[in-house]
Design a protein that fits this description.
Distance between the termini: 20 Å
Shape: globular
Radius of gyration: 21 Å
CATH superfamily of the largest domain: Farnesyl Diphosphate Synthase
CATH architecture of the largest domain: Orthogonal Bundle
């Protein structure tokens, strides 16, 4: 969405497509080229990148279609499947909303605005909804799902801040130290949500001892990972 050429050490999808188009035009058989007359005739790199972006969007659309097919073919009980599908629908709606906020580029971009983008385009997409999908499948109760959300939102935002630190794109949030301190505070907030909930239960539901340990380890990994 942001036309970046790399993401976590590898080429982004649109950059991957653009490179493939450029290789095919190069005519180098060793690189899979030589098909320019049948596949791609432009010698303009900008056009290759533009087509790469369009192909990446179409690939994303196709993945969403495939995801719906997987749900429709699932052997999960239909009553439960409808509840799970609702979480998946919200996941897609929220990430599109978050990406839209990111594209708008409000000026000046305040910390509040930036963290709200991170919440919707990363935290809800990568943490909240995936965890709630599992919670719904396990037929978690309302308090358990609330605990998961209270954990997942701050941890997911911290995950995105770590991405910014790895990509050296922290200028909107502050210095690297300020970003690390903010991420640490968010992780601690997420951990407290799990610890406080687990102290009030007998570990007989979604947040069993093993799940609690996994979530706490996941929180730490979110800000210690290097890729």
């Amino acid at each position: 969405m942001d036309k970046a050429k790399t993401r976590r050490g590898g080429p982004t999808v649109h950059e991957y497509f653009a490179r493939k188009l450029q290789i095919r035009h190069s005519g180098d058989p060793a690189e899979g080229g030589g098909l320019q007359n049948r596949f791609w005739t432009s010698q303009n790199d900008d056009e290759a990148h533009e087509l790469g972006i369009n192909l990446a969007i179409l690939a994303g659309d196709l993945c969403l279609i495939w995801a719906d097919e997987i749900f429709s073919l699932s052997k999960i009980d239909r009553r439960l499947l409808l509840k799970v599908k609702k979480q998946f629908d919200l996941l897609r709606e929220e990430v599109i909303f978050g990406q839209s906020l990111d594209l708008i580029k409000v000026e000046p971009c305040t910390r509040f605005h930036l963290l709200k983008i991170y919440e919707y385009k990363t935290a809800r997409y990568s943490f909240v909804r995936p965890l709630l999908l599992g919670a719904v499948l396990a037929e978690a109760d309302k308090k358990q799902k609330e605990a998961i959300s209270n954990y997942a939102i701050p941890v997911g935002i911290a995950f995105q801040i770590q991405d910014d630190l790895l990509d050296s794109e922290t200028e909107l949030l502050g210095t690297k130290k300020e970003c690390k301190d903010l991420a640490k505070d968010l992780i601690n907030k997420g951990k407290r949500a799990i610890i406080e909930y687990s102290s009030q239960t007998r570990y007989n539901g979604v947040l069993a001892i093993e799940a609690k340990e996994f979530l706490l380890e996941l929180a730490d990994y979110s800000v210690t990972r290097q890729s």
